[in-house]
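FAQ
Q: What does a multi-component entry look like?
A: The components come first, one per line:
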Amino acid sequence: MNTIEMKDIHFSYTEKEEILKGINITIDERSTAIIGQNGAGKTTFVKLLKGLLRPNSGKILLNGTDIADMTVAALAKDIGLIFQNPNDQIFKNTVLSEVMFGPLQMGMSKAQAEESARKALEMVGLMNMEKINPYDLGLSDRKLVSIAAIVAMDTKVIIFDEPTIAQDYMGKERIKKIMKDLRAQGKIVISILHDMDFVAETFERAIVFAKGNVLLDGDVKTVFSQKDVLEEAYLEQPSTAKLCHELGYGEIFLTPEEFIAMKQKEA
Ligand SMILES: Nc1ncnc2c1ncn2[C@@H]1O[C@H](COP(=O)(O)OP(=O)(O)O)[C@@H](O)[C@H]1O
Ligand SMILES: [Mg+2]
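Then the predicted structure of the entire assembly, as tokens:
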């Protein structure tokens, strides 16, 4: 089983303000959503996981190895991060060369890289777009290219930063399926999200960040049951949970399907 342990992580960009104030989290095989208000430190947190930033103090262990002792190249083989804005990630002029870039950097042969890239493009549903320039695609498909580019590297850990921004219903459903498939392959899937319904439908665990601290951490149902604590972090419950709360139920349900199943059992 893959794990990432964060032990008392402190981080600041400037001397004036500490952004992360002692984070202790062990990420395990459960798919994990990171939620919290803008500016709470979520992106900073995932950049530390990826080794793009180094903590001021504290340790991050990937399967027991301190990532401070790993080279950037070694870390890149284990941890993939899909940026919030695909334009910050994409730089090649065809979809296929973009998605092959990471695998080639990792030392795969051209044939292996191409095979890996094609598999990743199939997973995200962009099989017939290999020769297209990513910048001729809409933002939603360009996001899928940036996801495929990381998936193709076959890392143990895949981190998404706000993947559902600018996605319509179909795009969100596709991303949900990609995340579930990656989880089923045994990868650690971590995502920053602002869409609570998407979190409720897709993830096992939720971690709530507020002002550089972890406010809540647990399975999604437990986290989303705590309306008052969520409000401290300026978060809403997912819509089905809100409905259960408004109806005065003691237990919340996470999705309309769960709610309907409960109602049908009652009837
Ligand atoms: N490169 C940077 N230099 C200085 N401050 C930064 C930098 N990046 C982010 N911050 C600050 O760190 C805090 C946390 O930012 P961030 O991790 O991006 O939050 P989130 O992803 O939760 O919205 C914010 O107050 C932000 O302004
Ligand atoms: Mg962010």
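Q: Is there any commentary attached?
A: Sometimes. For this entry: The chain has a mean pLDDT of 95.
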